[in-house]
Amino acid sequence: MKNIRNFCIIAHIDHGKSTLADRLLQATGTLDARDFQDQVLDNMDLERERGITIKSHAIQMKHVHEGIEYTLNLIDTPGHVDFSYEVSRSIAACEGALLIVDATQGIQAQTISNLYQAIDHDLEIIPVMNKMDMDSAMPDEVQDQIIDLVGCGAEDIIRASGKTGMGVDEILKAIIENVPEPKGESDAPLQALIFDSVFNSFRGIIAYFRIMSGEIRKGDSVKFFNTGKEYHADEIGVLKLKQEPKDVLRTGDVGYIISGIKTSKEVKVGDTITHVDNPCKAAIDGFEDVKPMVFAGIYPVDADDYEDLRASIERLQLNDASLTFVPESSLALGFGFRCGFLGLLHMEIIQERLDREFDMDVITTVPNVSYKVYTKKGEVIDVHNPSGLPEPNYIDYIQEPYIHAQVISQADYVGQVIKLCIDKRGTLKNQVYLTSNRVELSFDMPLAEIVFDFYDKLKSISKGYASFDYHQTGYKDAKLIRLEILLNGDKVDALSTLIHVDNAYDFGRRMCSKLKELIPRQQFDVAIQAAIGTKIISRETVKAVRKDVTAKCYGGDITRKRKLLEKQKKGKKRMRQVGNVEVPQQAFLAVLKLD
């Protein structure tokens, strides 16, 4: 046990975590030259295309230091705020963390929030300054920022480059010397923490775990503490580039277990594995249940695919424990699921993964957050979608979730950032100059305002420099109303939104003109209206496709033409009563990109 080191890599998005992990794998000989590819741990096509890490990835390395062979278990974590739950799980399975800061950009919002998480778990922090080979690196400035943040000495900061491999040996040395060995008793009953799981269509569900105490052997009878289900350990092993079977795993090891589990509900991330005959007394305190921030409906394009969609979402949930879902139905779209996500990028990634990994065509409704509605009878209702809102005469008041947002930006862009946040109904709480050119701004804002396009706008006004992090603080009173979209007088519930009074008129008008472009012309006029209650606030008309019925009349009396036009008008009227308007899928997505 004294030769095991478990550590994770934490940093802001795009500071070079995965590239540095590649170098560590090469330096320890875990990777052959022929197996090598960039971002070797990111095994999803999506991750490579976007150049971001979506999942935490665990891998074991062997390294000889001063004649002793050490086992290093590395977990590479995502950097984006939407995947911070992945980071929290990785931190719970480690004793140390490499804190990586980009020497060209300095400390950013996610760096700080990930660091605080690691300190809360008493992890040993090893600060690394990455991208030192770049011409735009500012080592002295960034070094001062790290010293201010972590409180270490200048000699503790390792200068490295993921591209050239500089500093990799120092990092390995620091991990072996500074990261504590796993604590735990090897002769106590087995206690192993599940921190991730994947679905394999041949072998069932594979759970990844970290042993806190005791040992597990191949063929043992084990049970999952919280579900109480019992299994037979068909195969256990460690995670190298490929899974490597072993006969026994001991305290401090990170590995996987295959026991032929078929139903995804039986494996919960954060559960404890123990022996059937000699169980441990208590489960490990692992993670809090994740609270989704953004809710949206996911519906199959073809109604017959409903059961397939359920199976696909359940399998996806195994691999992404922060996804939550409940069944719901909609008049316009039929049966589907109301899903909870950690943010808009998370929602986009889930939609992409459903399409790529499970071949599911889905429609996603307008994302929104959950509100608390207080009725005049004194009841409190949680409302996740606009159709669940009671009639206005029953509502006493509505509360919406608020967040504390931290934006770190260059001083040149402060004015624009503050203006953006105030336009989004935010209030500026604090403004701190970290250095002469870097400012940390703190805002209180409604969560609903950052759900749409806040992140994109922040990046574009700050030329990509501003970084953003947030956490929910509670609920506050809000003046909200339900904005309905009507097509020929029929409500389209998938397009209705809950919105603040001040933004409703403008949003309704933009929505109608956008739908006018997207809804194809019919044989009759289609009226698109935005309404608040019974009051129509905006209207657009998609003109009918008309046949020229008067073409055969030339010359003669006007009454002949009039008669044909009247006949056509009656036909159009009759058609309008029976015709229904198909809303194309782009219309549901267009709402997200109204600007």
**Helix proportion:** 25-40%
* Average pLDDT score: 83
- The count of helical stretches stands at 14
Strand content: 25-35%
CATH architecture of the largest domain: 3-Layer(aba) Sandwich
Number of strands: 31
Structure commentary:
With 595 residues, this protein is of the alpha+beta class. The chain folds into five domains: 4-178, P-loop containing nucleotide triphosphate hydrolases (Rossmann fold); 191-275, Beta Barrel (Elongation Factor Tu (Ef-tu), domain 3); 294-367, Elongation Factor G (Translational Gtpase), domain 3 (Alpha-Beta Plaits, 2-Layer Sandwich), CATH 3.30.70; 372-478, Alpha-Beta Plaits; 503-593, Alpha-Beta Plaits (2-Layer Sandwich), CATH 3.30.70. The protein is built from 14 helices and 31 strands. The strands form six sheets. The chain has an eight-stranded antiparallel sheet. A hairpin with a 3-residue loop joins strand 7 and strand 8 (204-213). It is globular. It starts with a strand and ends in a 5-residue tail after the last helix. The model has no long low-confidence stretch (mean pLDDT 83).
